[in-house]
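Hello forum,

I keep getting stuck at the same step: I have a sequence, I want structure tokens, and every attempt I make locally crashes halfway through. Rather than fight my setup again tonight, could one of you with a working pipeline run this one for me? It's a single chain of 246 residues.
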Amino acid sequence: MSSIRFPEDHPLRGQVALVTGGSRGIGKAVAMKLAQLGASISICARDSQTLRATADQLLVIPANVFCQPADVTNPSEIAALVQATEKHLGPITLLVNNVGIGNPGFGPVQEKSADDWDRVLDTNLKSAFLVSRAVAPLMIQRRRGDIINISSLAGKNTFAGGALYCASKWGLQGLTGCMAEDLRQFGIRVSVICPGSVATEFSGRGPKDPSKVLTPEDVAHAVAMLALQGPQSFISEVHLRPVAKP
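Reply #2:
Ran it on my machine without issues. Output:
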């Protein structure tokens, strides 16, 4: 880890952010935004080549960066990731649970398999539980921290063909709310961001009009807003929609 000096106007200077699924899409945009604000960044993903390419882009900002391939549905890989992040960058003060998939979560419920269910729920919901469970005790010791879960407006609404995906996101809403109550006594804030459709490589329900969807940078802006909120309160839930109605 190299020592980087930031100007005093970098408000997240001294903070360490772990962003899951940080190699592309929303996760990449979040990592870039937090790095621009002065945070040290740890990113993980399964694709080591894409992960390394994103880490190289973060170094140009410049930022203190650590990356490690990891399957965030695997507790042992999560433990190794958290330990390595704190070794290279310092105590994790901000966790962004961003990992998520669409397919095989879309389609009539009667056509979905148990394997489809496991893949979607493990990725979109179980991973947030497992990574938060690994990081929260460390934040409790320090009596500070922010956990931000990236959900979806599909966690607030239902639609035909969305049973598995909606189940995972509704579950994430419930997990976030309960975590917030469990952890607020230790000075830890837990929030959820619910974006509408975002223009990424995410495999969703079909192509969208680019002028009527969000960008990854829109979601990153919301994450930054939560990371910069005042110390005496916390924004528990953010709904994010494009200005132009789809």
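The CA atoms of residues 55 and 103 lie 27 Å apart. If your local run keeps crashing, start a new thread with the error log.
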